[in-house]
Structure formats: C-alpha cells, structure tokens
UniProtKB/TrEMBL annotation:
Name of the protein: STAT2 protein
Domain STAT transcription factor DNA-binding, chain residue ranges per copy: 157-201, 216-254
Compartments reported by the entry: Cytoplasm; Nucleus
Family matches, as Pfam families: STAT_alpha (PF01017), STAT_bind (PF02864), STAT_linker (PF21354)
Molecular function via GO: DNA binding; DNA-binding transcription factor activity
Positions of the STAT transcription factor all-alpha domain: 1-143
Coiled-coil regions, chain positions: 32-59
Species of provenance: Rhabdornis inornatus
GO biological process, one term: signal transduction
InterPro entries named among the record's database cross-references: p53-like_TF_DNA-bd_sf (IPR008967), STAT (IPR001217), STAT_linker (IPR048988), STAT_TF_alpha (IPR013800), STAT_TF_CC (IPR015988), STAT_TF_DNA-bd (IPR013801), STAT_TF_DNA-bd_N (IPR012345)
Gene3D superfamilies found in the cross-reference section: EF-hand (1.10.238.10), STAT transcription factor, all-alpha domain (1.20.1050.20), STAT transcription factor, DNA-binding domain (2.60.40.630)
Length: 324
C-alpha cells in the first residue's frame, strides 16, 4: 500500500496541473485518466486490506469463543479436582492457544497503526482508511482486552501442606500457597509485572440477620465464613496497558483441627452448588443439594484417599442412613 500510494503521489505531483487550461490537450487528458486509474487501484487495495482485517477479526472472535469454552471446562475440572474428583488441569495447551491468538491480535494492532499513518500522505473523498480504521481499532481493542482478562487465572487454589491433603481449608498462623498464571506469554520486559494480593471475607448483608443452615439466627459460624484471594496485575505490552484481575475459589479459615470436618463440608457444599466465586454470601441461605449430586461428590472423597470410589450398594446404604 505504501508503494502504491507513493507511485500515485509522484504521478499526481508531476502531472496534475489544475492551474493550467489543458482540458483540450489529449496528452494531459490521458495523463489524468492514468492518474484516476491509479487512484481507483489504490482505493481497491485499501478496501481489500480492510476487508481481510475484518475477516481475521471475525475468525479470532470465533476462536475466542472456543477458548472461552475450553477455559470454562478447565475451571470446572479444577473445582472438581479440589473435591477429590479425577481430572487433568494441565494449562500448557491453553497457554499455547492464548499466546498464539494474542500474538496474532498484537500483529493486527501494529498493522492498524501503520494503516493509520497512510492517509496523512495520501487521502481522498470517501477514503476507507479514514472511515473504517477507527471502528477496526475499537473492535480489536475489545478483543485484546477480553483475551487478556480471561487469560489471568488461578493455577493453584489456596492450600496448606498438611491440612489432611485438602485444599481450600486453611489454618490461622499457618503458611499456605496459591498461584496465579497469565496464559498469554507476552509482556514488556522493561515493565516489571508484579501481582498485588488482597484477602477479603464475605460479610452478610447488614440490614437482615442471616440464617445459618436455615436454622440459627445471627452471624455465620467460622466454618461457614468464606474468604477470597484476589490477584491484581498491571499488564503492559506494545503500548497497551491493562489491569487484570482473578479470584480464587472461596476458602475457609479454621483455628484448630476439630473444625476441619465442618469446614470441609462447607467447601464441598459450596463447590457442589455454585460456580460463581463472587456470589452473594452463600451460607446466609444455603441451597439444597440433590442426592445424585451429593452421592457423586461423596464417591470422589473415597476415590481421592482409597483409590476407588463408592459402589452402587455403598451409596444405597448411605442414602438409607441419611434420607431414610
């Protein structure tokens, strides 16, 4: 495009002479016709490039939808894995796909910037670069923002080394670990990236006293207080700056081992019935669980420690004891 417009610009400056009355000069008329043909060719090429970029952005939107589904599947597997279910939570394939798409979008962003410079030298009435480039930039910016925000995930949920090998139940005054990961491996090496970490607790709405397990009035017991860790990351690459945020699954903090069973029951109940870490305070009004779902989760508990789940007869016995 630069070569085409340079050639047109040279011919325009050499041959177009509006101040002189040469409308009857056949040579001049032919020169103008050649000039008009060059402009039309330049216009077609500009429109073709913009159409190709529109097509690429449409394909990348389709790919982002697929990645969103894959990431949702990974989150569900991770949540179930925390409860003892088998599953693969390897992030390497997702990281590869997110990074490749990010590279493509950043390359398109550089091309759009180059296209923005072209009309400064050659433009004309109904120039497609003037009309369409800002809309393309906006669409591309939205795609990059969405990709990067969804690519910041919690790779390891909060866990302590010795709390009966269960994640999401932490003890006061004990060390624990949690890890976030950015699946787009592109960043400005001159920009120091460091995540800020904030731990908060869900507080029940102040205007109405909550009901614990639907029975007791008053504040939640400690094993039903759910906490979150939020990671915030200042991201910068190729002139794009964003603040990314991701949140752990809710966890419970206990002060002694006698609270562990109740705390683990809370973790099971939440993760069985909720997929939104930032839902309203869950145990203010805990939902009921259907037996088939609870039976599956109970089977995972045995599978995680005894290497096999519960049989149909095992589950029938438990159902009779629990439900009559």
């Amino acid at each position: 495009l630069e070569d085409l417009q340079d050639a047109f610009d040279f011919c325009y400056k050499v041959h177009y002479q509006p101040a002189e009355n040469r409308n009857n000069d056949p040579t001049y008329i032919q020169e103008l016709q050649t000039l008009q043909a060059k402009l039309q060719h330049l216009d077609r090429q500009r429109r073709e490039v913009l159409a190709q970029m529109q097509q690429l952005l449409g394909r990348s939107e389709t790919l982002q939808e697929l990645l969103r589904e894959e990431l949702g599947g990974w989150r569900l597997r991770q949540q179930r894995l925390c409860l003892g279910a088998p599953g693969d939570t390897n992030l390497r394939p997702l990281e590869t796909w997110f990074t490749e798409l990010g590279q493509g979008l950043f390359q398109l962003r550089q091309l759009l910037r180059a296209l923005n410079d072209l009309p400064q030298k050659v433009t004309y009435e109904r120039d497609p670069l003037v009309a369409e480039t800002p809309l393309l930039e906006q669409r591309l910016q939205e795609q990059l923002t969405h990709l990067l925000k969804s690519a910041f995930v919690v790779e390891q949920q909060p866990s302590t080394p010795n709390t009966m090998k269960r994640p999401l139940v932490l003890r006061t005054a004990s060390k624990f670990s949690a890890r976030a990961r950015l699946l787009v491996r592109l960043h400005d090496r001159n920009h120091h990236m460091e995540a800020r970490i904030h731990i908060d607790r869900w507080d029940p709405p102040p205007e109405t006293p909550p009901t614990t397990r639907g029975v007791q009035q008053g504040p939640l017991v400690v094993t039903e207080e759910l906490h979150l860790i939020t990671f915030t990351l200042a991201y910068a690459y190729c002139g794009l700056e964003l603040e990314l945020e991701t949140t752990t699954l809710p966890f419970v903090i206990i002060s002694n081992n006698s609270q562990f069973s109740s705390a683990w029951a809370s973790i099971l109940w939440f993760n069985m019935l909720s997929s939104d870490p930032k839902a309203s305070p869950f145990f203010s009004s805990p939902p009921l669980a259907p037996w088939p779902l609870l039976a599956e989760v109970l089977s995972w508990q045995f599978q995680s420690v005894a290497e096999r789940g519960l049989s149909r007869d095992n589950l029938l016995m438990l159902a009779e004891k629990l439900l009559g």
